[in-house]
Design goal:
This protein has five helices and six strands; from the N terminus they run βαβαβααβαββ. The protein is globular and about 40 Å long. Helices cover 32% and strands 19% of the residues. It is of the alpha/beta class. It has a single domain, classed as Rossmann fold, CATH 3.40.50.
């Protein structure tokens, strides 16, 4: 069994779009990331690999999650294409090439691509993906190379308004 945790970065400031890459989290965003990652820890979901966009807001979100997991910040793998909009086929290839020693992988990114990845991996996905949405998808596979589109099972979904 392999699991993927997809996270849309937490709430950000509502200005500075001309400097989008450098936008930071709001206090609300920081609190939401702390609460949701804390809920994950309570039920025993902690990733053994974290991959994130290098934008400031995703790095801040990742740092909060990683801190609650006890995951070393220096071990986060940053992928620039998660910021620029990695295509779904490229994302699926990235997952299929993961080292099989990783059982639970977390990816922190942006909308609309996080939504598109959810549509790719889950059959009939149509739920809202607000900021700080955290979705756990289970795959009944032993090796990441076996991963196929629409083969995931929605295991958990947290959004700030439901906590």
């Amino acid at each position: 069994m392999k699991s993927l945790v997809l996270v849309r970065h937490a709430k950000t400031i509502q200005y500075g779009y001309d400097q989008d890459f450098d936008r930071t989290l709001t206090e609300r965003g920081e609190n939401n990331a702390d609460r949701i990652s804390g809920e994950m820890v309570k039920i025993g979901i902690t990733p053994d690999l974290i991959i994130a966009s290098p934008a400031v807001r995703t790095m801040q979100t990742t740092k909060i999650y990683a801190g609650n997991f006890g995951y070393p910040a220096g071990n986060v793998r940053y992928e620039k294409k998660l910021y620029t909009g990695m295509q779904t086929t490229t994302f699926l290839q990235l997952l299929c090439e993961l080292d099989d020693r990783h059982t639970t992988v977390m990816v922190v990114g942006h909308n609309p691509t996080i939504y598109f990845y959810l549509e790719l991996l889950l059959p009939d996905f149509s739920l809202d993906v607000p900021t700080c949405s955290t979705i756990v998808i289970d795959f009944n596979i032993d090796n990441w190379s076996e991963l196929r589109a629409h083969s995931g099972i929605l295991a958990h979904r947290w959004i700030p308004d439901l906590l």
